Amino acid sequence: MSSFRVGRREGPFGLDSRALTSPTAGSGSRPGGDESFTIGGTATVDGNDLKIGLAEKAARFATGDRGTFDTSAVPDPLNARIAGTFQWSRQQQEDLLLETTVRGSVLQLYVTSIQIRTAGLWHGKKSR
Q1: How many of the other CB atoms lie within 10 Å of CB of 64?
Q2: What would the DSSP string read from start to end of 25-69?
Q3: What is the Cα–Cα distance from 56 to 95, expressed in whole angstroms?
Q4: 81, 68 contact by CB (below 8 A)
Q5: For residue 102, with 0-12 CB atoms within 10 Å meaning exposed, 13-18 middle and 19 or more buried, which class applies?
Q6: Which of 24, 35, 36, 98 lies most in the core, judged by the most C-beta atoms within 10 Å?
Q7: What is the pLDDT of residues 54-79, one digit of tens each?
Q8: What is the pLDDT of residues 100-120, one digit of tens each?
Q9: For the ranges 48-62, 75-89, 90-104, which has the lowest average pLDDT?
Q10: Dist CA 50 CA 98 (whole Å)
Q11: Do the Cβ atoms of 50 and 99 come closer than 8 Å?
Q12: Where are the domains of the chain?
């Protein structure tokens, strides 16, 4: 099982009124500090079930791709198609996930890269 939690809003980000896209902004900035990755569950090593658990903060926030607005339903709410616009990552780190002994030797498993990217269609809502 894994999860990701975001504790604050990012943005606002400007819109390109001609192309109806949300341009890249804030790339490489540090996240707000509340964004965290959690990995948990059970790993079977040499026939033994071992609990694993890791909770680490995101190290980087980026807006690497553009979100495109879907105008096909106008005048109904405007939807946004997102393909990785917002990204949180923790890369080039060595976070210990599991340590155990197997037949007299120490086995250590590390997580060295985690990335979360938004995707899909975000449904717009009418504002008052």
Answers
A1: 13
A2: -STTBPP-S--EEEEEEEEEETTEEEEEEEEEE--EEE--S-EEE
A3: 8
A4: yes
A5: exposed
A6: 35
A7: 888 888 877 766 677 777 767 777 77
A8: 999 999 999 999 988 887 777
A9: 75-89
A10: 8
A11: no
A12: 2-122
